[in-house]
Amino acid sequence: MESKKYYITTPIYYPSSSFHVGHCYCTVVADAIARYKRLRGYDVFFMTGTDEHGQKIERKAKEASKTPKEYVDEIVADTKDLWQKLGISYDKYIRTTDEEHKECVKKIFKKLYDKGDIYLSSYEGKYCTPCESFFTESQLVDGKCPDCGRDVELVKEESYFFRLSKYQKRLEKLYDENPELLEPITRKNEMIENFFKKGLTDLCVSRTSVDWGIKVDFDPKHTVYVWIDALSNYISGLGYLSDNDELMKKYWPADLHLVGKEIFRFHAIIWPALLMALDLPIPKKIFGHGWLIVDGAKISKSRGNYKDPRVYINETSVDSLRYYLLSEVNFGQDGNFSEDLFIEKSNSDLANDLGNLVSRVTAMVEKYNDGIIIKSDVKESYDDNLIDAAETLTEKVELLMDQLKINEAIQKIWNVIRKANKYIDLSMPWILAKQENSERLNAVLYNLVETIRIIGIALRPFLVETPSEIFNQIGVEDDICTWDSSKKFGLLKENTKVKKGKNLFQRIEINKEKSKMEQDKKDNEVVQEVQNQYITIDDLSKVELKVGQVLEVSRVENSDKLYKLIVDIGNEKRTIVSGIVPYYKEEELLNKQIVVVTNLKPAKLRGIESQGMLLAAGDNDVVKLLVLDNNQGTLENGTNIH
Ligand code: MSP
Q1: Percentage of the chain with pLDDT > 90?
Q2: Whose CA is nearest to atom 15 of ligand 1?
Q3: Closest atom, ligand 1, to C-alpha of 230
Q4: Burial of residue 68, with CB atoms counted within 10 A of its CB: 0-12 exposed, 13-18 middle, 19 or more buried
Q5: What is the pLDDT of residues 67-111, one digit of tens each?
Q6: Residue 216 has what DSSP assignment?
Q7: How many A from CA of 260 to the centre of ligand 1?
Q8: Which of 203, 302, 315, 467 has the most crowded CB, counting CB atoms within 10 A?
Q9: Confidence (pLDDT) at 529
Q10: For 425-488, what is the HEC assignment?
Q11: Considering only CA atoms, which residue is closest to atom 24 of ligand 1?
């Protein structure tokens, strides 16, 4: 039977007073996974923390005229504040300065020494202090650190060594037998080519020239190498080798170590080798994610592209930042953080798509039904499209989350949000209210609120404030906000009281200067486009053309030109606004089979979302629709046109 525990970790961070959105990235992703697993019924242990020892911290504290402990204490308090503001639901925050951790590392070191896997020798080689890494001459790139490109220092001292070379074969077997251990595969292959295949050499695991760290208890002039100290957190945090190792028994091996790409190799090589030496099981998965870069460059104070993430949270909301980080980056690859795109996405996806859906629907239930939900059986054929999409939503999310395809899982939720918005346009509750068709109106409002309930549940792993705000506004109780209750459409109870609340997201005004610059940029792009007179076959294949049939035609209010058409394109019905009033009477259009561009970005015309375009020919005076010649038999609606 599958175990129901789930142990997930982030790396433990070097204390820094300039944590940026890149640092938040991994923690937010880990948090979303932890929340998701909890909702699925797993007993989750989610750990994060800080890596507080080593030469780098020792030097920084000195520069700040503080003791290392004073220096890290201040930063840790600030880091915890940041995680709290980001809604990080960790179960344990480990500090490598914790007594239990220090004790554990000492015992690990002794155990490996007693076993003969650690031995005393001397080290002469290069060391990168910012990365806290040893390098051989051949690993350097132009004499500099291959990871950060900075200068390395010559280190020559007596040191203890870990017999890493002894584990080369066993590691190779491990990788071969567990193809899912190291992901993504590209990162695994890169690590194997660049490090593993070159042959593993024994690793220097103590320093005599560094004081700030954990002392080797049987030889206290040696300080344990910071990476051995740091990696051990994953088991010291569970009480390994302590009097109370209940957590270790329950949660080890880790189900997922989430780490950034530059520290993947420490986790993929040194960590499994250490665990083998300790006779402990190997984690189930080590995932090396990409970096967040800002407008193409690495984030750093010196580049001037650094901002405290709390600024973004204050200007928007915690969920806006979480949404951007989780949805915008293709998990595993590098992703870009741009302030403009952040605002744009916050406005379009959150304020418009999600926020408007909830506010429109709750407002309608209040206006037409005094906020009361009433069940009704009156159906239209297009209802099933929405109901199926809602009912199968979390199943789709699960499939993707279980493969760590986080951004794709979020896309599925937005597909349903957009479908629900379209459903409003299609069902037109305001017309039903005018016609006093209360049976159908009740059914439409029920379908919409029930869909919103399911959307709220699906959002629970990713957003931390919005789901409960949604549940409040639509008046649902906890029992139908559980993950499992998202699998059934129709659990929303009769007489539920809906109460429109504040808008879920505020639109953010990009300052005028910025939008002017953007307009100039767009104008330039248009000129460029006009200059490119030819398109390729690939460009052409992007246009999706289908046979559609006009089911309904009505005039758009206060417009001499526009018709609103409901067009059947096979698997769905689309609302299309078209300027052909001067050329066609309503009855001439009804039932015609026409050519529809179905993948054109929807656009609003007179407040109506037009979800496609009809093909027509002609100049200003005469316009002819492209219609199907049905003399030789008809084609089904939705047939592709090539
Ligand atoms: N202390 C070590 C980890 C020890 S784990 C046993 C360390 N700390 S760190 O503070 O430098 O980095 C912590 C994590 O933040 C790493 O996984 C790193 O990849 C991640 N990130 C730092 N900058 C980042 C971005 N710009 N984008 C995404 N992640 C980034 O390494």
Answers
A1: 74
A2: 23
A3: 6
A4: buried
A5: 999 999 999 999 999 999 999 999 999 999 999 999 999 999 999
A6: P
A7: 6
A8: 203
A9: 47
A10: HHHCHHHHHHCCCHHHHHHHHHHHHHHHHHHHHHHCCCCCCHHHHHHHHHCCCHHHCCCHHHHC
A11: 22
Q: Please state at what angle helix 438-459 crosses helix 466-474, rounded to 10 degrees.
A: 160
* Average pLDDT value for residue range 506-510: 85
CA of 498 to the centre of ligand 1 (A): 44
User: Using omega within 30 degrees of 0 as the cis cutoff, is the peptide bond preceding 184 cis?
Assistant: yes
Q: Which atom of ligand 1 is nearest to the CA of 271?
A: 6
Can you tell me whether residue 11 is helix, strand or coil? strand
CA distance 319 to 317: 5
Band the pLDDT of 512: cuts 50, 70, 90: very low
* CA–CA distance, 152 with 107 (Å, rounded to integer): 31
State the chain's mean pLDDT as an integer: 92
The Å distance, Cα 266 to ligand 1 centre, comes to 12
Whether residue 524 is predicted with pLDDT greater than 60 in this model: the reply is no
Say whether 204 sits in a helix, a strand or coil: strand
Cα distance between residue 125 and residue 154, in whole Å:
6
Closest CA to 56 of 229, 200, 204, 260: 229
- ∠ CA 527-530-531, nearest 5°, is 85
Residue nearest to atom 2 of ligand 1 (CA): 13
Six-digit token pair at 403? 């493969």
Q: What is the mean pLDDT of residues 229-243?
A: 98
In this structure, the residues whose C-beta lies within 6 A of any atom of ligand 1 are 11-14, 22-23, 25-26, 51, 230-231, 233, 259-260, 262-263, 291-292, 299
Q: Give the integer Cα–Cα distance in Å for 563 and 586.
A: 8
CA of 357 to the centre of ligand 1 (A): 38
CB 118 within 8 A of CB 172: no
> For residues 186 and 138, is the Cβ–Cβ distance under 8 A?
no
Confidence of residue 623 (pLDDT cuts 50, 70, 90): confident
Q: What secondary structure letter does DSSP report for 635?
A: P
User: Each residue of 259-294: pLDDT tens digit?
Assistant: 999 999 999 999 999 999 999 999 999 999 999 998
